[in-house]
Amino acid sequence: MNSYQQEIITAISWCLAWGNDRKPQFDITVLREMQKALRSKGDVPDEVQALVDAVKELDNLPFPETLNDLKQLTEKHPILWESKIGLVYGGVTKVKGYVFESEKLPDIRGASGLLDQINVVDLRAFFNHNYQPESSNERDKNLYSIQCNDVRTWLNENFNQDCELSEVLIPELIIYSTGGNILAFCPPAFVDDLANAIEKRYTYRTLTANSCAVGETFKLLEIKLGLLRDNIEDTFWLEKYQENYNHEIIESYFGKITENSSIPEDNFKNRKSFNELTTKLAISFNQRRSGNDFENRPTRRYPPMFETHPYLRRDETEKRSAITQANDLPGKPYYSESSAIKRKFSDRVKTGEYKETDWYPEGKHPIDDGWIKRFESFLANNHQQKYQYAENSNFDNIEIAESLTHLGKVSNGYIAYIYADGNNMGGAIQKIRTPQEYQDFSQDVDNATRYAVFIALAENLKPRKLQGIDESQSRLKNGDFIHPFEILTIGGDDILLIVPADKALQIAKIIGEQFEKILLGEVEISNLHIKGDYKIEEKLTNPNKFHRFHETISEHNQCKLSMSSGVLITAYNTPIYYAENLVTQLLKSAKKYAKTLNYTDEKTNKKITYYGGTVDFFTMKSVTMISASIEEFRNKALTFDKLKLYAAPYTLPELEKFFKSIQALQKAEFPKSQLYQIRSFLEKGRRTASLNYYYFRYRLNKGHRLKENFEHIWCPAKTNKGNIAPWMCDIKENSKEETKYETIWREMVDLFGLIEFADTKYSEKVEQETTP
User: Fold this and answer.
1) 162-176, 248-262, 435-449, 649-663: range with lowest mean pLDDT
2) Quick one: pLDDT at residue 221?
3) pTM of this prediction?
4) Which of these, 560, 559, 546, lies nearest to 599 by C-alpha position?
5) What does residue 340 show for φ and ψ, rounded to 5 degrees?
């Protein structure tokens, strides 16, 4: 039995020993001794030995094949049938509305960091868990210990009926607390208290962020076998399922049986497990978030209300009444209380320390282990990898960008937003049967997401020197080195970054690749152990079926989970709320494309699914370029009958070949005017565009580079051995549809002067364009 299984046993034993009432059925010292003994695998007190033995039996119970077997199981294990346990699920909601309420980078950074700290530090502190920072600095550890004690003091001051709530909770009760959500066990009498405390903590720290938490009590046996009726004979069980699994109502609940799926019984067993309990909580969560009131719970139907007055000064975002003016910040802005909290926390993210100011003396939250500090700790702990970012860098002298202007000035005026999200997560979660698997899955995905981002940044970036900023509007000066990226959020399987435009696609690609490799155990990272098995058993024997290029890829293993990304490359002065909306559209497009990539094997007639990642990107050189959605722009401006003047989204292997073609274009020394001329001829027809392309290519001294790395890779004809550059056929094999054509040329031209590779060092500032 590993330590993680021991934690779950300790958590369930604690709840069982506490009992169903608000006061423990055994003396609290007995419970503490039991907890200590289970941690050290020692002997538990005699008073609770029978309870602990019953919990250990729970995991080893056979799945009852008939309703009669289920009934006998309840009679044989009365403790598991009659005892109750609480389960609470909650976290922040409407995150983007809170984080992007302001368009200023420090406010966004502060809002994101504050939500992250509540989830990772404060909520865990409820359970007497002291957060351990990435750094090994004893001072930081002591400061976090003080902060966690302050959180518990607040908890006990607000929730102390019959006993202090922190006395009821222990660290082992947490199943997971990542991605802005928490799932935890608790003694059944304190379910509502804990759910209320979670919601209240978010309001206390932020004033305006939305949060929601729900809880439910379950029979102990339900942790193993899913929801059961009080009268066990009324429970819908396996016999009835086997008779009715094709019924549409049964299919909607247990899942549809397909040719490639396992036997029907597996669908039933996957659902009748701990998964069914979490599904019930998720439904309750959505109901409460939507405004439904819960019995014995305060309503969350009404949003926070702040009084205003027509003659009072307002803040610069939501026009709330200002309470303070930040005289020591550039521009001396006015802040309402909620916006002041964000701005103060942003300073803490930058320095890691709480600094008293005269414009907003906020309470005692002394430190924040921000993403920059975590990234620096990652580099220090994995120095043997010799990442580019760590070369010749003294991080004590590296500043954090104060605005999008700073990020733009170190990347030729263009920045990129990367929004990434995991694929196949829902299907994987539906097969999780135990709390232990939930804990392992959550931790594995969180680690893979975080370290994939760190590796991508470390391999592609390094600190850059500020030039061309207005020093009167900034604390930083020209010549200062800054971290050229901003991590807005990394939580669960969600990622939102701002990075230099010249490295954006390389970073997005490596994030997707490293996410899969980390889960497959193919990447060596200090102190990281992946606990789950994410490898698909059968190798992908014909991967070229999924990709549009014509270079052969060898067979390889696929990961059950992957990452899709949307990448928006735009000028640094593009409004951030507008950019966030567009990059969200790109992410949805990439995920949608990933779901369409499958084919049927002709020999076995088996459906082969692509589990890998995808990337959709768009280069916007003018804010007025998109008036509606990206999809509508592409359909109206970039699609002509049988011609599609773009090729995005791309699979990750396709993106690698796309880079190869852009590098060839840069090395071919193609005159810039001719690049744009060929692009303008695309909409005039396939033959006209091809004629112009070949005419200019043959005149180049290094035109052979394009022939080898563009034409041969992307543009072979379907009916002969020639090429149809700059086009490629957009048609599925064995399809009866009329042949259509698409091209990567437009996207190559858009990125020609924006993207930089290590071996070409091609970078120039591309002039602003007002037309696409």
Assistant:
1) 248-262
2) 95
3) 0.92
4) 546
5) -65, -35
Residue 558 in contact with residue 611, Cβ under 8 Å?
yes
* Distance in angstroms (rounded) separating the CA atoms of residues 318 and 697: 55
748, amino acid identity: M
Q: What is the pLDDT of residues 151-199, one digit of tens each?
A: 999 999 999 888 899 999 999 999 999 888 999 999 999 999 999 999 9
List, for residues 611-625, the tens digit of each pLDDT value.
Answer: 999 999 999 987 767
What whole-number distance in Å separates Cα of residue 197 and Cα of residue 202? 9
Strand partners, 651: 614
Q: Round to whole Å and give the CA distance between 629 and 363.
A: 43
Residue 263: CB atoms within 10 A of its CB come to 10
Q: Which residues partner with 672 through β-bridges?
A: none
Instruction: Compute the average pLDDT of residues 488-512.
Output: 94
462 phi/psi in degrees, rounded to 5: -155, 160
**Exposed/middle/buried for residue 474 (C-beta within 10 Å: 0-12, 13-18, 19+):** middle
Distance (Å, rounded) from C-alpha 738 to C-alpha 735? 8
Residue 215, beta-bridge partner list:
88
Q: Which amino acid, one-letter code, is at 756?
A: E
Question: Given this model, what pLDDT does residue 223 score?
Answer: 95
Asked if residue 271 lies in contact with residue 226, where contact means CB atoms within 8 angstroms, the answer is yes
Residue with tokens 């799945």: 63
Q: How far apart are CA 446 and CA 494, in angstroms?
A: 9
- CB of 12 closer than 8 Å to CB of 85: yes
Q: Which of 214, 202, 195, 216 is CA-nearest to residue 303?
A: 202
Say if CB 653 and CB 553 are below 8 A apart: yes
- Distance between CA 670 and CA 282 in Å, rounded? 56
Residue 389 CB partners (closer than 8 Å, separation 6+): 379, 457, 458, 459, 461, 462, 463
With beta carbons less than 8 A apart as the criterion, state whether 130 and 145 touch.
yes
Helix (H) or strand (E) holding 444: helix 435-460
Q: Give the Cα separation of 381 and 376 in Å (integer).
A: 9
193-243 residue pLDDT tens: 999 999 999 999 999 999 999 999 999 999 999 999 999 999 999 999 988
Burial label, 223 (beta-carbon count in 10 A; 0-12, 13-18, 19+): buried
Span 530-554, pLDDT tens digits: 988 999 988 888 888 889 998 888 8
Distance between CA atoms of residues 728 and 549, nearest Å: 9
**From CA 707, how far away is CA 698, in angstroms rounded?**
10
Task: Report cis status (omega within 30 of 0) of the bond before 726.
Answer: yes
Cα separation, 99 vs 345, whole angstroms: 13
162 Rama class: left (phi>0) / alpha (psi -120 to 50) / beta: left
In whole angstroms, what separates CA 388 from the centre of its chain? Answer: 25
Determine the Cα–Cα distance for residues 635 and 745; give it in Å rounded to an integer. 17
